[in-house]
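Example S7 (structure tokens).
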């Protein structure tokens, strides 16, 4: 018996097949582009997601695909896919880094139970209803990314609490906020019914089964957002368990048995099970480092790492990584970045090193907000494709002042999605998930680097000084 997890990320789709003990036995991935037709826009064709899924599935062993008994879904959170009644995407999906709705956040006056960002479904739909009236008139569903993909495979029109609560259109519990939706002038019928993440979300159609090399009719779980799926797949289950993920963005997740109180700049969302998590969400991690690598002309990541960490850290150069605004803890969509303190003796190596440090300090700002909310953290699990290099891991441990334990699971979100599929099929129960936690290996411990802490203090001071420029 096998279970397939599908993780629909921002720039690629990842698949993982796990066995009866939730051990990964096969995996694959395929990439697609994020486009920007206008400054501040971030879109991807939903059909490109499906094409990438078919491509990635073809790379999995056929015998493993034929053994799959259920499917679970993980998806990039926020954003929205305007969808027709028959499941067709009416326009490219609008994604979480999108800032076109920045001027429309006045509909969510502070205080809010959760921070509202312009790339969430609520602001994006408010923009669409004014600027793309033809699409709005034809639209039947406003779907989250993973829900659109599940529907494309024959699933039902449902969403789950972990995705709904992150749209800025629902209560923290995940139930749709009908009064808010009505006040915004959005049709209530656009929003799919909410089902538990591990509940059945339909069955795989014959057409989709033929495209993917799977058996028709197997159940599909409703699924969950990628962050709660990564937490599940990484073995977080007890109150206080914490995870750092680094990819295009970065998240620090702390599990909570009960709903945590609201704190400005931090999120309190539903988990993939019946619990909650506190989160600091930073936009500018991998996206900022990738931009810097291109600007500085490094052809490969190994070259960038080697040059950056061979260079002595500069006491005067600071990089603010806020290239696309920022969420936790600043909640400043207008924030922008760049280097400060450059001198004639600086090299691209010292600039790349400053970029790594700047991203680490931005993550530290989010972590400090969690600590200040009453959650002391001295150790975290570590996951995500952006945290492989040992030197980068050590810098993160030093900058964050935490011990980092890498999860022995290369595809945590896809694994979590597969586990949701297994629960939907009746193979596991939610009270058995703790026993399925993967091992974790300590990869870095903080060394008490006083010079680094001084550079961190300079970073915070400089952000405060330049914030008014934007």
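Recovered sequence:
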């Amino acid at each position: 018996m096998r279970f397939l997890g599908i993780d629909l990320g921002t720039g690629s789709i990842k698949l993982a097949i796990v066995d009866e003990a939730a051990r990964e036995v096969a995996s694959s991935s395929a990439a697609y582009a994020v486009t920007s037709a206008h400054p501040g826009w971030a879109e991807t064709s939903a059909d490109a997601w499906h094409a990438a899924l078919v491509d990635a599935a073809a790379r999995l062993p056929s015998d493993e695909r034929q053994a799959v008994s259920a499917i679970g879904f993980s998806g990039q959170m926020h954003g929205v896919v305007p969808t027709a009644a028959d499941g067709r995407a009416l326009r490219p999906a609008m994604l979480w880094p999108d800032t076109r709705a920045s001027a429309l956040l006045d509909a969510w006056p502070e205080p809010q139970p959760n921070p509202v960002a312009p790339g969430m479904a609520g602001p994006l739909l408010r923009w669409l209803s004014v600027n793309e009236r033809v699409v709005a008139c034809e639209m039947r569903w406003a779907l989250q990314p993973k829900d659109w993909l599940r529907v494309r495979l024959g699933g039902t029109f449902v969403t789950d609490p972990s995705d709904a609560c992150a749209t800025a259109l629902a209560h923290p519990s995940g139930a749709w906020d009908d009064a808010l939706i009505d006040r915004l002038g959005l049709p209530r019928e656009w929003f799919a019914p909410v089902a538990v993440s591990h509940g059945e979300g339909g069955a795989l159609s014959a057409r989709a089964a033929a495209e993917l090399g799977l058996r028709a009719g197997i159940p599909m779980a409703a699924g969950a957002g990628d962050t709660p799926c990564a937490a599940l797949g990484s073995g977080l289950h007890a109150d206080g368990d914490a995870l750092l993920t680094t990819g295009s963005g970065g998240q620090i997740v702390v599990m909570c048995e009960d709903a945590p109180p609201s704190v400005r700049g931090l999120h309190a969302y539903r988990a993939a099970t019946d619990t909650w998590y506190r989160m600091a969400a930073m936009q500018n991690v991998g996206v900022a480092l990738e931009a810097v690598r291109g600007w500085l002309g490094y052809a490969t990541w190994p070259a960038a790492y080697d040059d950056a960490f061979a260079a002595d850290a500069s006491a005067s150069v600071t990089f603010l990584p806020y290239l696309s605004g920022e969420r936790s803890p600043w909640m400043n969509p207008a924030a922008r970045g760049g280097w400060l303190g450059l001198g004639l003796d600086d090299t691209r190596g010292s600039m790349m090193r400053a970029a790594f440090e700047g991203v680490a300090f931005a993550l530290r700002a989010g972590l400090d907000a969690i600590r200040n909310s009453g959650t002391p953290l001295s150790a975290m699990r570590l996951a995500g494709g952006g945290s492989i290099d040992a030197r980068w891991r050590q810098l993160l441990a030093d900058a964050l002042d935490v011990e980092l334990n890498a999860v022995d699971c290369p595809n945590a979100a896809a694994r979590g999605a597969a586990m949701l599929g297994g629960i939907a099929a009746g193979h596991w129960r939610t009270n058995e998930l703790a026993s399925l936690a993967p091992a974790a290996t300590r990869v870095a411990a903080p060394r008490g680097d006083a010079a680094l802490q001084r550079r961190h203090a300079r970073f915070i001071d400089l952000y405060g000084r330049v914030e008014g420029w934007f």
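Notes on this example. The chain has two domains: 2-227, 237-408+439-470.
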